[in-house]
Each structure stands twice: as structure tokens, then as C-alpha cells.
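hi support,

uploading two proteins for the ticket. first:
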Amino acid sequence: MSAIEHVVIHQPGEGRRIDMGSFHMTVKAEHGDTAARLSVLEADEPPGFGPPMHIHRDAGEAFYVLSGEYVIFVDDAEHVCGAGSFIYIPAGVNHGFRVGPAPSRKLVIFVPAAMVSYFDELAAANARAATLDPVSLDSATLGDLAQRYGMQVTGPVPEGYV
């Protein structure tokens, strides 16, 4: 094992927390932990939350629903996925999701490692917007941020995402 690839063990509730405003994510593994092979985040999300439709150019994305319910959108199809569901979306596939009627929790896995820095930047922008020095995170700004991390926003940004 190299110095940047090592055993990672997080007990329940452990990991670096990213405060997204209305919910939080916990980083379980990221780029430096896995020699860029994968990243894993745990997300606790409120009812109705969801990102805009988007495409990851360079990474596949998988979800494992731990609790609650997610509606997964893949191209024009809609899939209701409850606890225990596993979803894998290859790179280049247009997708999005919405949290069901109750708070829900999922693992998010990117292969190869991706998106942790995007969530860090998005959280920082949200935090700035909540201070006396607000930042406008409109659709164009969000699109630019996404582009830097290999993601293309393909649908409207839903209310409450930023």
C-alpha cells in the first residue's frame, strides 16, 4: 500500500462533515484515501430535496438507500427506490433524484473518486450566502462550479438546492 492509499475505517457517525445548509454529508472516503479509485459520502437529506438533472462526464455514480425513499430520474424514466435499493449510473448518463416524503439517508459512491471538492465548494458558497456578504449562486454560477468538477447541469436548478 502506498502512503496515499490506506485502510479507512469510520464507525457510525464518523467522517468529515460537510454542512450543506438544509442537510449534511459525511465524507467516508475521498481521493487521497483511495488513490483516486473511489469516493464515498453519506447524505442525510430533507423531504423533497434534489439536485438539477445532470451528467458526470468522468465518473459513475452509485446510491445505496439506507433509509427513507428516493425518486431516481434517469433520462426520461422515474424509479421509486426505498431502503435497501442500489442504483448505479454510468458516466455520461443524464440523471437526478428527489427525496421522498420523509427525511432520507443514502451512501453516494463515485468511481473513480470525484465530487467531494464540488460539495466542499458548494457548502462554502452556501455559508457565504448566509452571512452579511451574500454570494449569488444562480444557475449560471452553479453551472460553472459543476463544470470544474466534470459535471454538466442539464435541467433547471430546483428551489432549495442552493
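and the second one:
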Amino acid sequence: MAKPKSTSGVISSVDHAVDLIEMLSVHGTATVSEIARTTGLPRPTVYRLLRTLAARKITGMDGKRHHLTLRLHELGVRARSVDMFQQRVQPILDRIVAATGLTAHLAVRDGNTAAFVAKRDGPEAMPMASRIGWRGPLHCTAVGKVLLAEDDSQPELPLVRQTNQTIVDPSLLAKALEDVRRDGYALDDEELLPGLRCVAVPWRDGEALIGAISVSGRSDEVADPAGLAEVLRNNLG
């Protein structure tokens, strides 16, 4: 199992952890001595790696023998699900960009943030912070308001001011979320970035919320939020 490696740019502890995981994937279970002998790693290093992996629930123990848990399988399934999720939404975003010329996003809730999991740039998109993997605040993004309107049960939500337009008063945010539920769409009116407006609508699978889909552009490009919301809804199917 031990093998010569190029060390350029390699973090040795991560490299050793992968060696250990690969060894257990082949052998099923092993003692510390067996892991050290097979991987060529010093026993103290093996102990430290196993403690770390066990703390992250990647390995477990039966007596003195260590084994992999289902955690890596779960992560693999989740990664595959995200990939399939993005494949499902990309045609929707393509249609929205074609219909509006604006940048389209899909975001899902991740704690107190809106996690952006898919994006399609408009043909003349203005620069913006969003990218796949970016997490934005819930209270001052259109997608975040849609997600909050579905479940605004977190009283400790931080209301950090981003621009002069940002809603930082909890009572005003509550009123804005009532408007989202009534109108079926949310507006970010230069609340995250000056000059940027966004409109978002919920994307559902039956009654269950999948996430929020939005379009973003310069303020003059997003002059008719209700009309853009209708375009978004018409292209979700």
C-alpha cells in the first residue's frame, strides 16, 4: 500500500488519511498494527488519524479492529444528488435567461444562509458576488426571503446591514415576509448590493419546497418585479 509520491502541493496529513481510508476499504477491518504495516505509516500517526476520522464518524471500532462507517457512502450519495439536482434545474435556468436576459439562480436554505447551488449568467450580466457554493444572507436576498417566508422560525437570525436599503428591523422583515407569502414572490431592492435588484419565487415539488429561483440585474433591468415573477413561474415546469 505504501507508495512513492510527489509531495508538491500535497498536505501530508490528508494524504495519509486517504491512504488509511483506502486500506480499510480493501481490507474491511484492521488493527492499528495492521494499518501501520500495510500503509507504512508510523503507529502514532495512525492513532491520530483514527481519532480524527472517528470524531468525524468516518471510522468505527469493533473491539480493537477499525472499519469504515457508512458516512462516506452518505456523502457520495449526497454529492450525486446535488449533481442530479443541478441537471434538473439547468434547463429551467436556461429558459429563464432566454426569456429575461438576466442572470438566474437557484438557492436552498442552509441554516441562516441561502446556499446558491446553480447559476446561469445572463448575456450581459453585471458583476455580482454569487457563484455556485456561495452562501448569502437570508434577510437581504430575494431567494433568502422566499426561503424565510416558508419557515421564519429562527428568532436569532442576524440582520446585518449591507446597504442603506437593507432591512434590519425584525418587524419590517416580518412584514416583508408577509408580502412574499401574499404575492408569491420576493424582491431584493438594492438590499445586498447598490444597483442590484433581484426577484425570486419558490420552486416546489408538489407542496414541498425545493428552493428559490431568482433573476438578478441592474435596477433598471428589474423595473417590473411582478412581471418578472410571472415569467419565472411560467418557466418552472
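thanks. also noticed: The chain has a mean pLDDT of 88.
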